[in-house]
Amino acid sequence: xxxxxxxxxxxxxxxxxxxxxxxxxxxxxxxxxxxxxxxxxxxxxxxxxxxxxxxxxxxxxxxxxxxxxxxxxxxxxxxxxxxxxxxxxxxxxxxxxxxxxxxxxxxxxxxxxxxxxxxxxxxxxxxxxxxxxxxxxxxxxxxxxxxxxxxxxxxxxxxxxxxxxxxxxxxxxxxxxxxxxxxxxxxxxxxxxxxxxxxxxxxxxxxxxxxxxxxxxxxxxxxxxxxxxxxxxxxxxxxxxxxxxxxxxxxxxxxxxxxxxxxxxxxxxxxxxxxxxxxxxxxxxxxxxxxxxxxxxxxxxxxxxxxxxxxxxxxxxxxxxxxxxxxxxxxxxxxxxxxxx
Length: 341
Ligand code: NAD
Ligand code: ZN
What we know:
Layout: E1 2-6, E2 14-17, E3 27-36, H1 39-46, H2 49-54, E4 59-60, E5 64-72, E6 84-87, E7 90-91, H3 97-100, E8 111-112, E9 124-128, E10 132-134, H4 141-144, H5 147-157, E11 167-170, H6 174-185, E12 191-195, H7 198-207, E13 211-214, H8 220-226, E14 233-238, H9 243-252, E15 253-261, H10 273-278, E16 282-285, H11 293-303, E17 312-317, H12 321-329, E18 335-339
Parallel strand pairs: 11-12, 11-14, 12-13, 14-15, 15-16, 17-18
Antiparallel strand pairs: 1-2, 1-4, 3-5, 3-9, 3-18, 5-6, 6-10, 7-8
Bound molecules: nicotinamide-adenine-dinucleotide and zinc ion.
């Protein structure tokens, strides 16, 4: 089968001919139709410090996918051949306290497909049946291929009550933009999204009813009175991983505000703790998706009018994967989807 592999310990990915994975009794084999390129895949492409420390070579990369089940392990129940699906790319263990309490997304033994285990940038993917998420007919393979990052957005956005709240999202990357759409769908009042990249802010406005703020030109302190907000923001979602954005968020929050942090700072990220204490701010770290509550809520919202389709700005056949990665790296794209059919 065709697969995109981290074949060498240097910049790039390589198209290889790999054996179709063999499945175990509890696995399924998925024929991949579409995959999404993630920021994580760019780290692996670039072979930065994190990738060098984390990813063994060779490794088939990729973890955002949609496809259909073509083989079913002998102990698997409840799935059928031909079922269209996406799936949770975090493979969890069952021994930890967290897993045994049903908090699968908090299992410390989590391993990621396309990072620690062979991934989805391939014509076929082996996946534990437990991780399969069937796709209803109304959800296309394109959207199926971006459910993983949409799940990050949904997990973050639904961390706190949003109904009637004023929401600040820092970072209008694909995940920040989708979180804005989710916040709107969930009933927030104002949804303000910041970035330093005008292309990203323009895309955010196409996907969701947001107030875009370019923080190189305008201060959040000016936006608050412009929107006739009496105080600062009730809920913050940090989705840039940028220190300045985090500082601006803390300043712009109301007393008793709540912040969900998804963005990953490149190193230690100092904050003004006294501001957080005196503003009585709650901070929650968000990792991955809740397994499987996030998937349930996300699919239910998509079936009920949540539309994130315009966040996909580029589509390529996998033979043109280099163009796809170049689009992702340009900073001018939303999600980039590769076609494996
Ligand atoms: P992205 O890099 O595409 O988007 C980040 C955006 O932040 C960019 O548009 C960038 O221009 C913007 N930005 C930079 N400086 C800024 C500033 N000062 N103020 C406001 N915006 C600024 O990333 P993404 O794929 O959308 O992911 C968002 C973040 O979430 C990243 O940090 C990523 O590493 C992280 N992430 C975390 C998890 C998790 O499980 N915690 C999962 C996926 C992604
Ligand atoms: Zn991803």
